[in-house]
UniProtKB/TrEMBL annotation, chain A:
GO biological process, one term: transmembrane transport
Keywords: Cell inner membrane, Cell membrane, Membrane, Transmembrane, Transmembrane helix, Transport
Topology of this chain in the membrane: Multi-pass membrane protein
PANTHER family: FE(3+)-TRANSPORT SYSTEM PERMEASE PROTEIN FBPB 2, INNER MEMBRANE ABC TRANSPORTER PERMEASE PROTEIN YDCV
Assigned GO CC terms: plasma membrane
Keyword Membrane: yes
Membership in a protein family: Belongs to the binding-protein-dependent transport system permease family.
Localization (cell): Cell inner membrane; Cell membrane
Signal peptide: none
Designated name of the protein: Iron ABC transporter permease
From TrEMBL, chain B:
Keyword annotations of the record: ATP-binding, Cell membrane, Membrane, Nucleotide-binding, Translocase, Transport
InterPro entries, A to Z: AAA+_ATPase (IPR003593), ABC_transporter-like_ATP-bd (IPR003439), ABC_transporter-like_CS (IPR017871), ABC_transpr_MalK/UgpC-like (IPR047641), Mo/tungstate-bd_C_term_dom (IPR008995), P-loop_NTPase (IPR027417), Transp-assoc_OB_typ2 (IPR013611)
Protein name, entry field: ABC transporter ATP-binding protein
PROSITE patterns, per database record: ABC_TRANSPORTER_1, ABC_TRANSPORTER_2
Matches recorded under SMART domains: AAA
Molecular function, one GO term: ATP binding
């Protein structure tokens, strides 16, 4: 289209440049990781694979990983589908707030959730203190990891399923009922099979999330000496054995392969399923629960109370305790834990480090991600699709695998030349931009897809394809979508733990690493205080964002 | 200003959307391009706008080369404007800002309007022309379909472009509004004196408004002519069927006499084009046929369906497998199953 001959050469140059950068930042690290797993002193061979696969510990770790991931996925699947069904189809009240609570695990990182659960269910926790006769639940166990992970990932299943439910035309069910099916038969034979693509898609994402997760097994598994692949790789690397990197590389390849099998299965299943043709979302309730409504609502809020509200209250209360294990009574409370963490340079610096990392990642994401998604939407061709797949890799792969690949790629970008990227914050910037860029690209693609091609062409036919078109038409139209993507990138980067746990340098810890090191050194009070502080900051941030959004909206309405 | 399309070919991959199209839009002319969906009419329009580039051939706008296979002047640098099928309103700008945008950025806005005050006067004037002077501060979401179309028209005519492209502008409106907007667009054409290229699949719109009609099918031009020529003297079977809904009969022509293929019945010429005669065809539109029960010397068939249309009845008559559509005035009634003869109305 509109190939002005003078711009033709430039355009080609940009294209080659973009592909080159994508290969360097997104493809080469993975290749170097794979090479590293085969590379021993005697050259390329299977020595490390042999050593790892004949080690009984590896099989124990693999077994743990599968039990944790499959177990938590089943919990996510059941919870996610149940909540999606209730929010989409029934007439329960306060759906907005219910949804807010469902999405809470998206906002609060899973290691903080783990910490909060321990403060509620654990031996010194609020629940045990309130109800003495109740046996406390040892969360430092497989069951603890599985439950916290299941609760943390069920929003993914919910997110994938709820709009699929809404899209299923209600006539489908009515047609089944008029043909003689009972409510249950209509649901199990018609509605649920139609919603299956969403349920399956969400479950696979939860599965991948389980493989990727490092925070929960690090907080809950490490004290009980339970390892899963992600924590095992971490221990290998920080254990600094003579072949630590190579063995970690082998384990990463294994973890990566499991993830790729998961992604491929999901892709095949979703490809086979026939999409529902209607695009209209039907928000009005289809089931009036009547008297059962109150019971359903009580159950829902009891669930939120037990899984989020009370654990977080316990965490905040613990953070005020003078000493761990004391009773929750006013004379035991003080601000001394907060005074301590705020007086320590390294904790305050970790907040600034994370803010800077998240800020820079977000800004680069907005610029690069938006430009890329524009071309991806307007010129959909094979090379653009391949580039998008490449950008997806660092996010689809488990964070621990990416972190290791980053070390191999940037320690010596050209073999024999070490510019000191690994060991400084530079490697974290590179890792975060590559990991989170796809989030910005996806939201950019959605934003641009919503701008009809003719809307853009209408600007061009009126004489502007440059500044005027972008300033007056395109940017105002894509801004909401792009900014919500940016918000997601910022928050993900701010509380990121997995990648930074391997890549942080001693003079620049991230928030996640700081909390993890408090916890691993046994300073529960400091870690709860720091976590409460971060949750508080996130809530204040969200509140400010909503307030400014509401204010802007009011301004627009007044302007009319 | 004339616009010429010279030997234009357009391929999308292996699909040939346009095959050697030649066409000239005269200064101030209202030219309609008529054809079924997928015939290439929208592609042709988008080539003129500059949103597509030709695979082969030349487009000349105002005696300047606008597009060849090698070099394409982009839409923003052409003295054209366009009304889109989807209206393509900008959801975040109000009615007045739509017209303002065009006045500010269109590169061929006359020097008379460069001054801000003059431009504002022009915006007032245009909003008045399309009947939206009261709606300047409305947002697109607060407008009805017809009002949206008027905004789209106002935005297109404000910079006084010399060529106005319209891509099925009425297809998103309901039937009654469509008839009303036909008059509005005709009025606009008289007022602006711009050349209009109007793409449509609705032969009623093309016949009603256009000075000339171009009928397209499968990427090729079938016929160019005035609405009367296209309707009364179709040159190809496609035009006869698509525009006039005509029934085609096969046979042989001998001078002005037509002999049917399988029955020994002859019809006299009632104004069939030479091209159809060369193809040994006789075309009759539904209203050009009368049915008779008495006359045995005609081709005969059986009434299959009968539908009341208000002003007339529409019959489908089965003539040895071929379905013939006939419109008859209310007083000439036949019943389903009745044997009838087909007679041209002379």
């Amino acid at each position: 289209m509109s190939a002005i001959s003078s711009g033709f050469f430039n355009r080609k140059l940009y294209k080659v440049l973009a592909i080159g950068l994508i290969i360097i930042f997104f493809i080469i690290p993975i290749i170097r990781l794979i090479i590293m797993s085969f590379l021993s002193d005697e050259g390329i061979n299977f020595d490390y694979y042999h050593a790892i696969l004949t080690d009984g510990r590896t099989w124990q770790v693999l077994q743990n990983t599968l039990i944790v991931v499959v177990g938590s996925t089943i919990i996510s699947l059941i919870l996610g589908t149940a909540f999606a069904w209730m929010v989409a189809y029934t007439d329960i009240r306060m759906k907005g707030i219910v949804q807010l609570f469902i999405f809470l695990p998206f906002i609060i990182p899973s290691y903080i959730t783990s910490l909060a659960w321990v403060q509620f269910f654990g031996p010194a926790g609020l629940l045990t203190k309130m109800l003495d006769q109740l046996p406390s639940w040892n969360l430092y166990s497989m069951s603890g990891i599985i439950f916290v992970m299941g609760i943390s990932h069920f929003p993914l299943v919910y997110l994938f399923t709820v709009n699929v439910f809404r899209k299923i035309p209600r006539e489908m069910e009515l047609a089944a009922r008029i043909s003689g099916a009972s409510r249950w038969t209509a649901f199990s034979k018609i509605v649920f099979p139609m919603a299956l693509p969403g349920v399956v898609g969400g479950s696979f994402i939860a599965f991948l999330g389980g493989l990727d997760n490092f925070g929960i097994p690090a907080f809950l598994g490490t004290p009980a000496n339970i390892s899963v692949l992600s924590t095992y790789i971490y221990q290998k690397v920080i254990g600094f054995g003579p072949s630590a990197f190579n063995e970690a590389a082998v384990l990463s390849v294994i973890l990566g392969v499991i993830a790729i099998i998961g992604i491929s299965l999901q892709w095949i299943l979703l490809r086979k399923s026939k999409p529902i043709e209607t695009t209209k979302l039907d928000y009005s309730p289809r089931y009036h629960l009547g008297k059962k409504k109150l019971i359903a609502e009580i159950l829902i809020w009891l669930f939120f109370a037990m899984t989020s509200i009370f654990p977080f209250i316990s965490m905040v209360m613990t953070s005020f305790l003078n000493a761990y294990g004391l009773d929750f009574v006013p004379e035991n409370f003080s601000l001394k834990n907060y005074a301590y963490i705020l007086s320590r340079n390294s904790t305050v610096e970790s907040i600034f480090t994370s803010l800077k990392l998240a800020g820079v990642t977000t800004v680069i994401g907005i610029i690069v991600g938006t430009i890329f998604s524009y071309y991806r939407v307007r010129k959909p061709n094979v090379t653009m699709r391949l580039q998008e797949y490449a950008i997806t890799i660092p996010y689809a792969l488990p964070g621990m695998v990416l972190a290791l690949a980053m070390i191999f790629a940037w320690m010596e970008p050209i073999p024999g030349w070490n510019p000191g990227i690994y060991g400084s914050t530079a490697i974290l910037y590179i890792a975060y931009v590559t990991r989170f860029l796809i989030l910005q690209v996806r939201s950019g693609i959605t934003a641009f897809q919503q701008v009809d091609k003719e809307v853009e062409e209408a600007a061009r036919i009126n004489g502007t394809n440059g500044f005027g078109k972008w300033k007056r038409i395109m940017i105002p139209l894509i801004a909401p979508g792009v900014l919500s993507g940016a918000m997601l990138v910022f928050l993900s980067a701010l509380t990121e733990l997995t990648v930074s746990s391997l890549l942080y340098s001693s003079n620049a810890e991230t928030i996640g690493v700081a909390i993890l090191s408090f916890q691993q050194s046994g300073y529960t009070l400091y870690s709860t205080a720091f976590s409460s502080l971060i949750v508080g900051l996130i809530i204040v941030g969200y509140f400010l964002l909503f307030a400014s959004g509401a204010l802007r909206k009011r301004k627009v309405e007044n302007g009319k | 200003m004339t616009t010429s399309i010279i030997h234009i070919n357009k391929k999308f991959g292996s699909f040939q959307a346009l095959k050697d199209v030649n066409l000239t839009v005269k200064d101030g002319e209202f030219l309609a391009i008529l054809g079924p969906s997928g015939c290439g009419k929208t592609t042709l329009l988008r080539l003129l706008a500059g949103f597509e580039s030709p695979t082969d051939g030349t487009i000349q706008i105002d005696n300047k080369k606008a597009a060849t296979a090698k070099k394409v002047i982009p839409p923003e640098r052409r003295n054209v404007s366009m009304v889109f099928q989807s209206f393509a309103l900008w959801p975040h700008l109000n009615v007045r800002e739509h017209v303002q945008f065009a006045m500010k950025y269109h590169r061929f806005v006359g020097p008379a309007f460069k001054e801000k005050k003059k431009a504002e006067e022009r915006i007032d004037e245009v909003l008045k022309i399309v009947g939206l002077e009261q709606f300047g501060s409305r947002m697109p979401g607060e407008l009805s379909g017809g009002q949206k179309q008027r905004v789209s028209l106002a935005r297109a005519i404000a910079p006084e472009p010399q060529l106005l492209l319209m891509d099925e502008p009425l297809s998103n409106l309901d039937a009654e509004l469509r008839i009303e907007m036909r008059h509005e667009i005709q009025k606009l054409h008289r007022l602006t004196k711009a050349s209009i290229l109007y793409v449509t699949h609705d032969q009623g719109e093309a016949l009603a408004m256009a000075d000339r009609i171009v009928v397209m099918n499968a990427g090729k031009i079938e016929q160019i002519g005035t609405p009367e020529q296209i309707y009364n003297q179709p040159k190809t079977p496609f035009v006869a069927k698509f525009v006039g809904k005509a029934n085609l009969f096969e046979g042989t022509w001998d001078g002005s006499t037509f002999m049917h293929k399988n029955v020994s019945v002859t019809w006299e010429d009632c104004g069939i084009s030479e091209n159809l005669k060369e193809q040994n065809l006789y075309a009759l539109r539904p209203e050009q046929i009368r049915l008779s029960t008495s006359d045995e010397s005609q081709i005969r068939g059986t009434v299959v369906t009968k539908q009341f249309q208000g002003k007339e009845y529409q019959y489908v008559v089965d003539v040895s497998g071929q379905e013939i559509v006939v419109d008859l005035p209310l007083h000439e009634q036949f019943e389903i199953g009745e044997g009838v003869g087909i007679v041209p109305r002379m």
